[in-house]
Structure formats: structure tokens, C-alpha cells
Amino acid sequence: MSEPQSSQRDILKKLYHDFIAGSHILHYHNVLDAFGHLSFRHPFRPEVFVMSRNAAPGTISSVDDLVEYDVETAQPVQRDAPAGFLERCIHSECYRRYPGVQSVIHSHSEAVVPYTFSGVPMRPCYHMAGFLGTQTPVWDISDAQQPDDPSDLLVRNTHLGSSLAAAFADGAVSADTPTHAVVLMRGHGFTVLAESIEVCVMRAVYTQKNSAIQTTALTTRAAEPAANRAIKYLSEKEVEATGRMASLASRRSWDLWLRESFDDDVLRCLGTLLPSLDTSPRALYRSPILFLVAYQDHASPATASVVDADLEQRRGGPSDSHIQTLGPVMTVSTRLSSEGRHHGDRTGGERNPSDVASLRKDLWETLVKLFVD
């Protein structure tokens, strides 16, 4: 029996939210910079997967930035879809080959790239990297290229994507379940598969962390060449046990990274905005994030009074798109004000730490509604 339409919408909203949040988490951890990408399989149409338009992951902020693609062809479902990533065949071929895969990440992490071409195998170094297995395979695009393929190391078509996808099963032609969660790509980066966005993000972040730890270990070991003891990586038994543990604990990492990436975005925005708050209060209208944080937490009494008066005057104007967008924000603003959660210089008192946590929760919930409703 199919789920009610409203329930399906709720599930999709959560996935859209997780996708946007995951993109910012990956950017915060430098797993994705201006390049690289995250995707997820549509929960009710498994023949479709979702990626962002061709943009830096850290700039993704709305469902309007997302594009649906056909798994078989890697072509957009909608003809008028915005331009997409050249390497979306990485994602389409992994989804086509492995029905259980629900999320894919492709990264160019600088910490990982040396292990793609140096001949030094990436090995699991600590308990958060058991998902890597005892050794991570390296896929060489030159082994799969045809004469007319460009030599730019990009996975531009389905036969290259199919070859990469096969590497997750050690090249087995008929395997429909990956035996590896991560495959390195020579001179390029790495790709991660998982059963959810949350777990996929966790694996990508800890692949990068494991690479940094292994590089440090190798460097430290080289400093004492006379030492008899070799580096001791995780055993096969340890890999199996720690891999299960890490997946079960992914929510803890996700919740922390969500807070860190959100706070980082806000602080970077405010760093640009705050110097002009007292002279240009209308700049607050440019972004719901800036408005909600700056007005509640940082506005001086003079600025606050100007903004209050201006909003009161403008609130009734149905043609004002800024105020329409900020409708949910104003609801939170009014409620927070009535509960006495304004900054000390607005109320004459100090803010309780629990109020700060509550404000952040209100901020996030409101922004999620703005972005995905």
C-alpha cells in the first residue's frame, strides 16, 4: 500500500533538508570546495536521483537549486532544468548498478588525493574508519577510457561511470551489492556510497580524516627508520566491528556538524553585515538568515527601533516580497521577543545559555521551513 501523499511530501522535505545541510557540512569540513557533489536517490521513484544544479555545494540553499535526473541516462527529468554537473554519471551508474545505494558523494579532498597516485594504499587507521575495509581500491580512469574520451580525468559518460561503479565490487560484472564503501580515483579524488545521506556524509568526512591520520603516521614512522615496529592498521575483524559501530553512531556526528556548519555560515554572513548595522538596517532584508540572527542577537537599540518601525510600516504590503519571505521569521521574532530572549543591550539583562540554545533551535527550524516549504 502506497503512503499518503502528505507523508511522501514530509519524507521528501526531510531529504531536501538533509541534502542542503549535508552540502554545507561537507563544505565546512573541506571535503567539498567549489567542486565535488552530493546526491540521493528519490525515495518513491528509485529510477530518479537528485543533485544540485552546477554550483559550489556551499552555496546551495533552496529546493530550487535541486535537479532530478534519470538513473538510466543521467539526463534531467525536466527539459528546462538548470545546467548540471559534467560528472553526474558517477552517481547515475552507482545507483543503476546498486539498488540499495541511496546516496553518493564525489570529492577532490586534498588529504585523500595523494593516496590515489602514490602507490601507498589507504588503510583504516582508527575506529571511525572501519567502513574503509582493510584496503581501499584505486580506480584508474585510463584503464576504462576509449580512444575518443578526453584525457581530463573527468567521468563524463556512462561507460566511464559504469567502470567506476564496478570498482566498488572489485570489478565483478554481476555483483549488485558493493563490497567497498569508498573507491579512490587516480589523480582525481574519491567516491563514497551509503544507505543514506547522513551515513554518506559521515563516511566522506572520516575518509578525509583517516587520510590525514595515515599521512601523519607515515611521516612519524619515517622519522625513526631504525624502529622495528611496523604501523599496525585495523585488522579485518576490527574493520567489521568498527564499521557497524560508526554507522549506528552517525546521528551524533551529524547533529554536531549541522550546528557547526550553520553557526559558521551565520558568522561569516554577520562578519560582512555587522559593521554597517547601525547605518544600513535595511541590509538585513537581503537574507532571512541575516535578519533573524542580526535582529535577535546583534542589533543595537537604535538599529532595532529603526527596523521595528520600518517593518511595522511595510508589514501590510502584500507586494513586498521581502516581507512575504520573512513572514515565518517575523513570527519567531515576535515570539522570542515576548519570551524575553533578546540580547542584553535590548533588555538590560544577560542571556541565559539555555536561551541561546533555544534560539539556535528556533533559527534552524524556521530556516528549514523557509527553504523547503
Structure commentary:
- The structure is a single chain.
- This protein has 373 residues and is of the alpha+beta class.
- It has 2 domains: 5-249, Class II aldolase/adducin N-terminal domain (L-fuculose-1-phosphate Aldolase, 3-Layer(aba) Sandwich); 277-372, no CATH class.
- Helix content is 47%, strand content 9%.
- The protein has helices at residues 5-28, 88-97, 114-117, 158-167, 197-222, 236-248, 250-273, 288-298, 301-314, 321-325, 327-338, 344-347, 353-372, and strands at 37-41, 48-52, 66-70, 103-107, 138-139, 182-185, 189-194.
- A 7-stranded mixed beta sheet has the order 3-2-1-4-7-6-5, sandwiched between helices.
- Helix 5 (197-222) crosses helix 7, helix 7 packs across helix 8 and helix 8 packs parallel to helix 11.
Helix run count? 13
CATH topology of the largest domain: L-fuculose-1-phosphate Aldolase
The description of the largest β-sheet is: 7 strands, mixed
Question: What number of domains?
Answer: 2
Question: What is the mean pLDDT?
Answer: 78
Low-confidence stretches: 272-311, 313-351
Which CATH first-tier class of the largest domain would you pick? Alpha Beta
User: What string gives the helices and strands in order?
Assistant: HEEEHEHEHEEHHHHHHHHH
Secondary-structure content class: alpha+beta
- Radius of gyration over alpha carbons? 24 Å
Q: Percent of residues in helical segments?
A: 40-55%
- Strand-residue proportion: 5-15%
Give the spatial strand order of the biggest sheet. 3-2-1-4-7-6-5
Going by CATH, the architecture of the largest domain would be: 3-Layer(aba) Sandwich
Give a count of the beta strands, DSSP E runs of length 2 or more. 7
At the fourth CATH level, what is the homologous superfamily of the largest domain? Answer: Class II aldolase/adducin N-terminal domain
Shape: globular
- For the record, give the distance between the C-alpha atoms at the N and C termini, rounded to a whole number: 26 Å
Keywords: Lyase, Metal-binding
Domain Class II aldolase/adducin N-terminal: 17-215
GO molecular function, one term: metal ion binding
GO biological process, one term: pentose catabolic process
